[in-house]
Amino acid sequence: MAMLDSSADLPLQATHLFRRKRMMTFAALAAIVAYLAYTFFAFDIPGLWQRANADNAKTLIADTYSYKTHVTMNNRNGEIVVAIEGDRKARYGAEQEPEWVTRGGENTEIDLGDGHLITFSPELITYDVPDFGLMTFEVSRSQGVIQTYPVDADQLPDWINASKNRVSVKTDAGRLSVTRNRSEVFRYFNGWELFFFALDSPYYGKSAGEVVALAFQGEAGAIFHDFWHNPLWRHGAVAWAIFETILMAFLGTLGAAIIALPLAFMAARNFAPFYAVRFAVRRLFDFVRGVDALIWTIILTRAFGLGPLTGALAILITDSGTFGKIFSEALENVDGKQIEGVQSTGAKPLQRYRFGVLPQITPVLISQILYFLESNTRSATVIGAITGGGIGLMLVQAIITQKDWEEVSYYIVLIILMVMFMDWFSGWLRKRLIQGK
Amino acid sequence: MADLATTKLHADAVTDDYIAQVSRKRLYSGLMLLLFVVLMVSGFQVASTRNGGSFWGGIDNFFDYPGEVVSEAWANLHALPGFMLKYIPALLETFNIAALSTLLGAAVAIVLSLLSTRGLARFPKLIPVFRRIMDASRAIPEIVVALVLIFIMGGGPVPAMIAIAIHTAGALGKLFSEVNENADLKPIDGLASVGASWSQRMLLGVVPQVAPNWLSYALLRLEINIRASAILGFVGAGGLGYELKNAISWGPGRFDEAAAMFIILFLTIMVVDQTSSYFRDRLVHGAAGRA
């Protein structure tokens, strides 16, 4: 409140104050708008729409709920392979092939459903699209892909993309692409393929009931082994990566607390009588916090190599500064009377700290440590992506290869579940430890 | 006399009981401590075996890299100010990512927090929905959103900005709604009695009460977001983190430039921390010169 003297021009002063306040508000708003305008151009938002790739977004979304099976013919030797996502590890064996692929001597028929029929025979591929007609593609070494369509070549619909050496046909039922070297059909299915068992596992294709029944017949170990070592989804490795991420957060947070507690005593006004010590320790905390986690991560990676230990140490060092600051503030707020009371019974300094001080700051300690444990689980995901440990690394690798987006969505779901679990767990533990059950 | 005897007996029983309880408590505490130590030690060992280099092997090298950086920077001291200037635009981008995401995140957080505070909410039945929205946006790690958006939008500051803004909206929304809960409802009733709409009640009745605390939390968030923005740059979102990654990871590394970047990042974080803590102090405790 500015000073208002009780003279006659009080209304005038009030109007003046109001006007100033209104000016301030508008100035703040104008500053925010100006800053938004500046960042709009600094971040090149207008150019963003050109750079943004809608196809990538579509692939990403489609892959989260569907997968495709590839039928590939090598045009040089006529060999045909059926594999999920074209993955070598998910190739169908001879007897296992899906019933929509029918092999005859020379010709292989691929039924995409809804009347869409494709045939593969050496050097000739046909695709019959209902309401459109039969297309044929002849692969010739010298002339590229020779194409015939039921319409004139210059009136092709936009779902056919043709050039001399390659053709791509996209319909609702699937997709066919023909180049000189190979012909490939994609058929899309909903769900995550082979999530539980790979194709070469004896349990592939069995219903949940059958698998449970087999488990009770003493095959539980083998079933679990096939699931855990699924070569496509690598459940065992993923579980281990999540454990590693939580381990990094746990070691980093608690290690930081263990280091910070004694140092906090040296930084608290009521426990460290020497100003120089207090000043030095506090600047140490500031330095450790100020040198960002990113810089610590880089330095530690150079010293300790890639891995979870490096991530844990990066969290440990950064957080010991933060903890030191929080703990020393808590220590400055402790009640001196309790310490005197303990001292009056003849307690030595260590006992005074143990029975006079620690019980007072324990609630602050526990709640801060648990809060950081939860938030560090998230940091450990990011740091893991840099130091090469845990689920963060797997996520980054899956995104960089740009192949299996269903794996990316799987990891994202797992990371969110992990963070939510840690959130719930730390809340539960806090309640039990502070309020006593 | 019988009374006294029973009282004494009773007191003995109480003492015994108390001592038994204390020793049981000590036993439990001891076991917990032991479990904790075992967990820490074995955890470190597991992490160490999974690591590229071991802890004891690395501890000797701990100062090697900072040493190399410092010595190379020292040898090239005259070039250091030039390098610092060279990376100011990248630093500005890192800062802008943090500032804009704090601004946008806080704006969303204000709306979410008002909609999810009991007594203030526009649609009281939807309070749990808005709370869950805040929880969800807090739970998603920034790197997940950033990497997915980088895939769709291409590299650059915008994916990182959006990722941090989403997290900020959730984190600040929770803190803001805690502040809102302590707001006095009388001004709102007063405004309602003269026919003010919901947005007018919030703007004129609630915001003046809570704005200082909101601002204080938003400033604290800005400090956190600068760090997050630097880290996200390292995984491809532009700004100083990205330059830093290029400087240290190509071939032998350009350590003198890395040193320049370390210094300006450190200075920025210090300046923002100090400025924000000064303003937060003023906002919460009032200006020193105020009458």
From TrEMBL, chain A:
<dbReference type="GO" id="GO:0015416">
    <property type="term" value="F:ABC-type phosphonate transporter activity"/>
</dbReference>
<feature type="transmembrane region" description="Helical">
    <location>
        <begin position="246"/>
        <end position="272"/>
    </location>
</feature>
<comment type="similarity">
    <text>Belongs to the binding-protein-dependent transport system permease family.</text>
</comment>
<keyword id="KW-1133">Transmembrane helix</keyword>
<keyword id="KW-0472">Membrane</keyword>
<dbReference type="GO" id="GO:0005886">
    <property type="term" value="C:plasma membrane"/>
</dbReference>
<feature type="transmembrane region" description="Helical">
    <location>
        <begin position="380"/>
        <end position="402"/>
    </location>
</feature>
<keyword id="KW-0812">Transmembrane</keyword>
<protein>
    <submittedName>
        <fullName>Phosphonate ABC transporter, permease protein PhnE</fullName>
    </submittedName>
</protein>
<dbReference type="InterPro" id="IPR005769">
    <property type="entry name" value="PhnE/PtxC"/>
</dbReference>
<keyword id="KW-0813">Transport</keyword>
<dbReference type="Pfam" id="PF00528">
    <property type="entry name" value="BPD_transp_1"/>
</dbReference>
<feature type="transmembrane region" description="Helical">
    <location>
        <begin position="293"/>
        <end position="317"/>
    </location>
</feature>
<dbReference type="InterPro" id="IPR035906">
    <property type="entry name" value="MetI-like_sf"/>
</dbReference>
<feature type="domain" description="ABC transmembrane type-1">
    <location>
        <begin position="242"/>
        <end position="426"/>
    </location>
</feature>
<dbReference type="InterPro" id="IPR000515">
    <property type="entry name" value="MetI-like"/>
</dbReference>
<feature type="transmembrane region" description="Helical">
    <location>
        <begin position="408"/>
        <end position="429"/>
    </location>
</feature>
TrEMBL record, chain B:
<feature type="transmembrane region" description="Helical">
    <location>
        <begin position="142"/>
        <end position="166"/>
    </location>
</feature>
<dbReference type="InterPro" id="IPR005769">
    <property type="entry name" value="PhnE/PtxC"/>
</dbReference>
<keyword id="KW-1133">Transmembrane helix</keyword>
<dbReference type="InterPro" id="IPR000515">
    <property type="entry name" value="MetI-like"/>
</dbReference>
<dbReference type="Pfam" id="PF00528">
    <property type="entry name" value="BPD_transp_1"/>
</dbReference>
<dbReference type="InterPro" id="IPR035906">
    <property type="entry name" value="MetI-like_sf"/>
</dbReference>
<keyword id="KW-0813">Transport</keyword>
<protein>
    <submittedName>
        <fullName>Phosphonate ABC transporter, permease protein PhnE</fullName>
    </submittedName>
</protein>
<feature type="domain" description="ABC transmembrane type-1">
    <location>
        <begin position="91"/>
        <end position="276"/>
    </location>
</feature>
<comment type="similarity">
    <text>Belongs to the binding-protein-dependent transport system permease family.</text>
</comment>
<keyword id="KW-1003">Cell membrane</keyword>
<keyword id="KW-0472">Membrane</keyword>
<dbReference type="GO" id="GO:0015416">
    <property type="term" value="F:ABC-type phosphonate transporter activity"/>
</dbReference>
<dbReference type="GO" id="GO:0005886">
    <property type="term" value="C:plasma membrane"/>
</dbReference>
<feature type="transmembrane region" description="Helical">
    <location>
        <begin position="27"/>
        <end position="47"/>
    </location>
</feature>
<feature type="transmembrane region" description="Helical">
    <location>
        <begin position="254"/>
        <end position="272"/>
    </location>
</feature>
<feature type="transmembrane region" description="Helical">
    <location>
        <begin position="97"/>
        <end position="121"/>
    </location>
</feature>
<keyword id="KW-0812">Transmembrane</keyword>
